[in-house]
Predict the 3D structure of the following.
Amino acid sequence: MADPHPTGAPSTSPQWWPPVMLDPRWVGTHHGEFDVFPLHFGFDAQSPDALAELVAELERWGKPIVYTVHDLRNPHQRDPAPHLKDLDVLVPAADPLITLTPPGGSPPLSFTA
């Protein structure tokens, strides 16, 4: 699926914005267009409550979250607490959870949360 732009943003805009797909209303409207909800990064502008609403809407439509853990600490934030709170919502909701960093030289992890 193409990355939808926020209302009014030109399709050629190089500006970054939080993914529109993180809005539960987007999921409610487009749930018939996807089988799984891939998540990698870009959710740091969302509050834990907003992410919980997203998770609830995905669960409502039976859409699994495939979360690739990119950073356990967001390098763009000084205080790690907000990111950790986001992870507290997303990690338990993921099915599966995938890591990019192999622990101890073993292959990347992929498991059901």
Observations:
- The chain has a mean pLDDT of 81.
- Residues 92 and 113 are 5 Å apart (CA to CA).
- The two ends are 25 Å apart (CA to CA).
